[in-house]
Amino acid sequence: MEFNFILPKNFKEQSISHLLAETWFIPRKQRHFLRMKRHILVNGEPVNDNYRVSASQQITLLFDHEDFPELNVPFGDAKQAEILYEDEHLVIANKPEQMKTHGNSKDELALQNHVAAALKQPVYVVHRLDQATSGLVLFAKNQFVLPLLGQLFEKNKIHRQYLALVKGHFPKEQFIINQPIGNDRHDKSRRIVAKGGQEAITHVEVLQRFPHSTLIRCLLDTGRTHQIRVHLTHLGHPIVGDVLYGGTRNNRLMLHAQELYFKHPFTDQHIKISVDSQTFSENLPDFSAQKRPF
């Protein structure tokens, strides 16, 4: 594999060593291969770790198969992959409700397999959506970019916006839920708000009130398992259709990952992708009569 990059105009001068380890988060093993094989080029010339690079220079990285063993992903059905964005390094697809992000066994086909079939190459899972949740999922197209995208998620530099329909009404139009989340000792499938849990922060904005429910927008600062579902249940407002957390039964879980936005890690381009869900809209109260605020 060969990757070529033109460093953006606002790039801060730094050593090759810092660029690979701290800016692009390339794993130690792959950095070792690049260094030993002299597979790091600047403007076409091999350089060492101490070489300092600056804006507008071209960086070329060469990887052999032994550097990044290829992932074996069985191809699914390309027709089931709704791809909304793609470039050399990443792809964003729209996951329907009740489709898994990835299979739990080699024989189980999921969104990852369908996207791989559409691209005719393996893709790598960066983050996941619950099976019952619809919306945007980001995949890496190579192992080079995978750890970098993972770090961007950890540092809250990839922003995720969700729509949810919840039971009841809130006293405020906007608020922040800052409650740690941990495992439920009595049910391995559930999470709970717990003092010793991991930090979890959810921003909530009310979009529309219905007689017995409220449509809200949620923005995540963290990405804990079931975070939105746990936080809203903790407040006494479970998501409609979320029977695991006490919500009323519905045709589907009323949670949809509507938007992803972030700065591209290599080009500094601002990527913003949004998608609506027909089944989510159809399950809102008085769907045919109401004008939706999204």
Automatic annotation (TrEMBL):
GO terms for biological process: enzyme-directed rRNA pseudouridine synthesis. It is an enzyme of class 5 (isomerase). It catalyses: a uridine in RNA = a pseudouridine in RNA. It holds the Pfam family PseudoU_synth_2. The active site is at D130. Its EC number is 5.4.99.-. Belongs to the pseudouridine synthase RluA family. This is Pseudouridine synthase. It comes from Lactococcus taiwanensis.
